[in-house]
Amino acid sequence: MRMGAIVTRIIQQMKRDKRTLALLFLAPLLVLSLMYFIFNSNEASVTLVVSNGPALLIDKLKETDFTIIEDDDFSKKQLQDKEYDGWLAIEQNELKLTLLNDDPSQSKALTMQLAQLLQTSQDSIGSLETDYVYGDKDTAIFDIFSPMLIGFFVFFFVFLITGIALLKERTSGTLERLLATPIKRSEIVAGYMVGYGLFAFLQTIIIVLFGIYVLDIVHVGSIWLVLLINMMIALVSLSLGALLSSFAASEFQMMQFIPLVIVPQVFFSGIFPLDSMAEWLQNIGRIMPLYYAADALNGVMYKGYSFNDIIMNLSILACFAVVFITLNIISLKKYRSL
Predict the structure, then answer these.
(1) What is the distance between the alpha carbons of residues 178 and 308, in angstroms, rounded to a whole number?
(2) What share of the chain is helix, strand, coil (3-state, %, to 5)?
């Protein structure tokens, strides 16, 4: 009887909490649907440029799943700029395969299939020499993912810790007492951003340095650029966590934002090939901060990009931060109108 009373109370409490019910039943369906569309996307087409290739070899290559582009005046710089998967150059019966290697698993598959095809070719062609634009033959798939993982962990922990900390500020009455003073809403938001930002930036530095110098995560570009990108990620996460904390009534509700805000961004951070996704899925990824953060980190740490190469990604991240901070200031209107 007493147990039944407890069960009845919990059911009534859950029925009144519409947000929890929605996240309990709808959020898993949303994430599951997203995973379905992503994993059922078509495999990315492999594009191979061939220079001075004999007609018989070209015909055999066109019978494969490769997209073949014939260009006798091609260069390694063009391969990098156009982001094709590989370039096969033939000079005096010598073959040189240059791989972009931005996806090591795809590069290895291309090399193996090309080697098998050359073995069956009747053309008197010499051995195959392989060169790489990024990385080398020992590059593992984790070398591609690891820069993105650093950005993800910075984003996730800053979001979680900041959101819960600011929620406690509000539920404990500290925010209301601040709003009872002449201080402006923008000053409150700026104060929270700077105060919690100091700890968020310190956490970011620790994560980046640990990942690079202790775990030996690949980094070709400048460590300062890596830190700069992650500082921007922390700022976006800090402002987003602060914004969403104003819509949560408890720590439990703050945690409920994770499957809606954090999990979907993982799918668009480069862990799964974006080029093979449907266009509408790619458009969803472009409205998520981690899409640009991961692209910048992968560019600097794996490809050795300079500041000019990532300035667009940094600018977009800065725009996200400005938008979230502005919304933070606006959201305080429900506590006080000034």
Answers:
(1) 42
(2) 65, 10, 25
